[in-house]
Design goal:
The complex is a heterodimer of chains A (about 375) and B (about 375). Chain A has about 375 residues and is α/β, with parallel strands linked by helices. Chain A is built from 7 helices and 17 strands. Chain B has 14 helices and 12 strands. Classes of the chains: A alpha/beta (about 375), B alpha/beta (about 375).
C-alpha cells in the first residue's frame, strides 16, 4: 500500500488534486477514505447523498437512515471538515428504484448498485465537485484508477479480490473517471479498519451493511409489491413443460434460486432456470441445467473504443463471482461472451463486466 | 473555510447574541443557578432575575408580565399554546392553520389531527396571506382553534394577525399566533392584539437558544404539555432556565433598537435583492403590495438546487440556508415555498434564504454576491454583468 502520510498531489498521474469531495454514507469505508485523504493534507469536504427515506424498523442502522447521516457528520466533525447532505431522492427513485421494480416485475434481476453508481452517485458527485470548486471526488469503493501512457484514466480492480467493487463502477466515462479517487483501492478491509483506528475514525468498526440500502429487511418481493407493481403470476413448470405448481408473481424469483419455490421436497433439488415474463412461467430444473457457456450483453459501455475483433478476457457475471475466462465478441451495441468453462446461473438483468487483467474494459447487462 | 470570519446572512435561523444579553447572562451566573421556586435567599435572588427578565420581555411585546410563561424556546411556546389549549382527552373537532407555517405550528397541529381533529389548511393565493374573509369562511361551528404565524420565517411575509384576531373573536374561536419571527421586525403589542395566545423565541431577537415565552390571554386556560411541578403558575412545569431567561430579557430591551434599524435593513435588502436578480434569481413569496419584513429574501435560480448552493456558498465563507434549519442536517424542498409557488416546484427545490440582522452591512452583501459569482461561474452561470 501507499504510505498514507506521503503528500502525493497527483494520483499516479492525471490532474493535480485540489479540494476533494468525499462521498460519505456513514459507513466505515467512506469514513476511512475521508480520513486518509485528510491525513495526506488534502482539503476534504464530506458529502452525503440522501437517496431514500428509510421507514419503520428499517430506520435504524441502514443507509440513508438518520443515524447514518449522523455518523457521517460525526466523522467530519472529528476531522474538522465541512459536511453537507444533498437530497437526491427524486433521482434515486427515477434511476434506481423504479427500474428495479420494473425489472423484477418483468422477471429479470436488476443490478441496482450498478445503476446507482452510474446514474446517481458518480454523476451527482462530480456535479457537486463542480459546484464546490473541487477537482476530485473520492469514494470508499475498493477499486483503483491508474493512468495509461496517454494519461487516460483506467478503472482497475481493487487490490483486495474479496472486497473488489469495480464491478459496480463500469461505464463511467473518462471525464468522470479522471475526477475519481479511491483511497481504499490498495487496502484490504482489515487494513481499512486498522487505518481507521489509527486515525481515530469514530465508526471504523461499524459493521458493513449487507442488504440493499432501500430494502434493508431483504424482502425484495414484498418491496416490489409495496411499490404498486402487479407482476405476472403463473405456473412453475419443468423443462419438459410439466406444471409442478403455481406462483403469485415472477418478481419473487431469480435464476439459480432454490428456496421459496413452494414445491414438494424430494431429490434432486430444483432451481429456477428461466423466467418467461409473458406467460409468467417459471421453469425449474436440476442444478447442472443452470450452467451456460455463453451470454449476450446489452447497453454495453466500453472503456475505450469498442474493439473490432474478438478477444480473450475475464468476465464477471455478478458481484463476488470470480471472473471467468471467455472469448468476448463485440456486437452492435453489446457483446457476446463464450466461457471456457460453463458458468452457473447467468441471470438476465445482472451486469456482465469484462476485465483484461485487472482493468475493466467493458460492462453491460445480461440479456 | 478560509481564515476570515464567515459572512453571516442567516439571521432568521439564529442571530448573534446581543452584547447586552451576553453581559447580562454572565453577570447573572452567580445567582441564576438557584431554584427560583425556593423560599430562601438564594432562591429569591434567582427569582428576582427571572421576574426582571419577564418584565423586560413583557414590555417588549406589550404584555402584562403575569401573562407570560417562559418556555425552552419558540417550539415549546407554540406547543404549549396549541396543544395546551385542550384538556387531556379533549379532542378538538376542527382546527385551522395555513400552508406556510413553521414546523412548530404544522407539527403541533398534526398532533391534534393524529388525535382525531379535522384541519383546514388555508392556502396563500397569489403569494399573499390568507384573506381574513377566507379565514372567516374556514371557521366552522365546531372549530376549536386557529393557529398561524405572524411573520413567515422563509419569505418574511407579514400576516394581518390583528384582522385574524378580530375574525376569531367574532366567531368565538381562540387564535394562537406564532410571533417567533415578528418581534424586533414589526411592532408587537399582544395586549391589544386580541389573540388567545402568542409564542415568542429569544434566539430570533438577540437572546440565547433555550429561551422562549408564550403569552396567554387572561380568559384562556392552558393545560401544561409536560407533567410536573406547578412552576409558571401551573402552566409550564420544570425549573425555568434562569440564565437563558436573563439573556432573553436583556435582548428584549433591545427590541426597540432593532425596530429602529428596519429602514436601514430594508435598504440593505433592496441592495441584496437587486444583486441577486441581476444574477438571474427570482424572489420567492413576493407579490407587489404584499408586506414583507425587511430582514429576509428568499430566492431561487432555475436549475440550481438550494441545498447545493448553500453548501457551495459555505465553502466560499458565506452562511445562508435553504429553508428552516433542521437538526438532522437533512435538506428537503421547502413546503412553504412550494405552497407559495405550486406551479413552479423548482422554486422550492432551489430556495435560498438570505436573512439580515442588526450587524449586517453593505460589505456583507457585496461579499456574499461576490461569493455567489464565483459559485455561479463554476456552474456555468456567469453573472449577468452586475453594476
Amino acid at each position: 500500500m501507499n504510505d498514507p502520510s506521503a503528500p502525493p498531489q497527483r494520483p499516479a498521474s492525471g490532474p493535480r488534486i485540489g479540494r476533494v469531495v468525499v462521498a460519505m454514507s456513514g459507513g466505515a469505508d467512506s469514513s476511512v477514505a475521508a480520513a486518509l485523504l485528510h491525513a495526506r493534507g488534502l482539503e476534504v469536504v464530506g458529502a452525503t447523498l440522501h437517496l431514500w427515506d428509510a421507514s419503520g424498523a428499517a430506520k435504524v442502522g441502514r443507509c440513508c437512515a438518520p443515524e447514518d447521516r449522523e455518523d457521517a457528520r460525526r466523522v467530519c466533525d472529528h476531522l474538522g471538515i465541512p459536511h453537507y447532505v444533498v437530497d437526491e431522492r427524486a433521482l434515486f427513485r427515477e434511476r434506481v428504484v423504479d427500474p428495479f421494480v420494473a425489472a423484477y416485475a418483468s422477471g429479470t434481476t436488476p443490478a441496482p448498485c450498478v445503476a446507482c453508481n452510474q446514474h446517481v452517485k458518480l454523476t451527482r458527485l462530480v456535479a457537486l465537485a463542480d459546484a464546490f470548486g473541487a477537482t476530485h471526488v473520492a469514494t470508499g469503493h475498493y477499486a483503483r484508477i491508474e493512468y495509461d501512457a496517454d494519461d487516460q484514466p483506467r478503472l482497475l480492480r481493487g487490490h483486495d479480490a474479496d472486497k473488489d467493487q469495480s464491478y459496480f463502477l463500469f461505464g463511467a466515462p473518462a471525464s468522470v473517471l479522471g475526477r475519481l479517487l479511491f483511497p481504499l483501492g490498495d487496502l484490504t478491509k482489515d487494513e481499512t479498519r486498522a487505518e481507521g483506528r489509527r486515525l481515530g475514525v469514530p465508526n471504523a468498526d461499524k459493521p458493513d451493511s449487507q442488504e440493499l440500502c432501500f430494502v434493508p429487511d431483504g424482502d425484495v418481493g414484498g418491496f416490489v409489491e409495496g411499490q404498486g407493481a402487479s407482476p405476472q403470476s403463473g405456473r412453475i413448470i419443468d423443462e419438459s413443460g410439466v406444471a409442478l405448481g403455481q406462483h403469485g408473481g415472477v418478481h419473487r424469483f431469480t435464476v439459480g434460486q432454490r428456496r421459496g419455490l413452494g414445491l414438494a421436497g424430494g431429490a434432486p433439488p430444483r432451481y429456477v432456470l428461466r423466467i418467461v415474463s409473458d406467460t409468467g412461467d417459471v421453469i425449474v430444473g436440476a442444478d447442472d441445467a443452470l450452467a451456460s457457456s455463453s451470454l449476450r450483453a446489452r447497453d454495453v459501455a466500453w472503456s475505450a473504443a469498442a474493439p473490432s475483433t474478438p478477444f480473450e478476457a475475464l468476465v464477471r457475471v455478478r458481484h463476488r463471482h470470480t471472473p471467468a475466462a471467455a472469448l468476448v465478441t463485440p456486437t452492435p451495441g453489446g457483446f457476446e461472451a463464450t466461457f471456457h468453462v460453463p458458468q452457473r446461473a447467468l441471470t438476465p438483468g445482472q451486469a456482465a463486466v469484462v476485465y483484461r487483467g485487472e482493468e475493466v474494459v467493458a460492462g453491460g447487462y445480461i440479456v | 473555510m478560509g481564515l476570515a470570519p464567515p459572512i453571516y446572512l442567516d439571521h432568521h435561523a439564529a442571530t448573534p447574541l446581543a452584547a447586552a444579553a451576553l453581559r447580562a447572562m454572565r453577570e447573572s451566573e452567580a445567582d441564576a443557578w438557584a431554584n427560583p421556586a425556593s423560599v430562601h435567599a438564594a432562591g429569591r435572588r434567582a427569582r428576582a432575575l427571572l421576574e426582571d427578565a419577564r418584565r423586560a420581555v413583557a414590555a417588549a411585546v406589550g404584555a402584562d408580565a403575569a401573562d407570560l410563561v417562559f418556555t425552552s424556546g419558540g417550539t415549546e411556546a407554540v406547543a404549549t399554546a396549541v396543544l395546551g389549549a385542550f384538556a387531556p382527552g379533549d379532542v378538538p373537532a376542527h382546527v385551522v392553520t395555513t400552508a406556510i407555517e413553521h414546523p412548530a405550528v404544522t407539527e403541533s397541529v398534526a398532533r391534534l389531527v393524529a388525535r382525531g381533529a379535522a384541519v383546514t389548511t388555508l392556502p396563500v393565493p397569489g403569494r399573499a396571506p390568507p384573506d381574513p374573509a377566507s379565514l372567516d369562511a374556514a371557521i366552522r361551528p365546531d372549530t376549536r382553534l386557529v393557529a398561524l404565524q405572524w411573520v413567515n420565517h422563509e419569505t418574511g411575509l407579514v400576516f394581518p394577525v390583528a384582522s385574524y384576531a378580530a375574525v376569531c373573536r367574532a366567531r368565538g374561536v381562540p387564535l394562537v399566533v406564532d410571533a417567533s419571527q415578528a418581534v424586533g421586525k414589526v411592532p408587537v403589542a399582544v395586549g391589544t392584539l386580541g389573540a388567545s395566545a402568542v409564542a415568542f423565541a429569544a434566539s430570533k431577537l438577540g437572546g440565547p437558544h433555550g429561551a422562549g415565552a408564550v403569552w396567554i390571554a387572561r380568559d384562556r386556560t392552558i393545560w401544561p404539555v409536560l407533567a410536573g411541578g406547578g412552576q409558571e403558575r401551573g402552566r409550564r412545569p420544570g425549573t425555568p432556565e434562569v440564565r437563558a431567561a436573563v439573556g432573553f430579557g436583556a435582548a428584549a430591551r433591545g427590541v426597540a433598537a432593532r425596530l429602529d434599524a428596519m429602514p436601514r435593513i430594508a435598504t440593505l435588502r433592496a441592495r441584496l435583492e437587486a444583486g441577486l436578480l441581476v444574477r438571474g434569481a427570482v424572489v420567492n413569496g413576493f407579490a407587489p403590495g404584499v408586506e414583507r419584513v425587511a430582514t429576509v429574501t428568499n430566492v431561487a435560480f432555475e436549475g440550481l438546487r438550494g441545498d447545493v448552493l448553500v453548501a457551495a456558498l459555505d465553502l466560499e465563507g458565506v452562511c445562508v440556508s435553504s429553508g428552516a434549519a433542521c437538526a438532522s442536517g437533512l435538506p428537503a424542498p421547502s413546503p412553504g415555498v412550494r405552497a407559495l409557488h405550486p406551479d413552479a416546484p423548482w422554486r422550492a427545490e432551489g430556495a435560498l434564504r438570505l436573512s439580515l440582522g442588526p450587524e449586517s452591512c453593505d460589505a456583507d452583501v457585496d461579499a456574499a454576491l461576490s461569493a455567489l459569482d464565483r459559485v455561479l461561474a463554476r456552474l456555468g452561470r456567469g453573472a449577468i454583468s452586475a453594476s
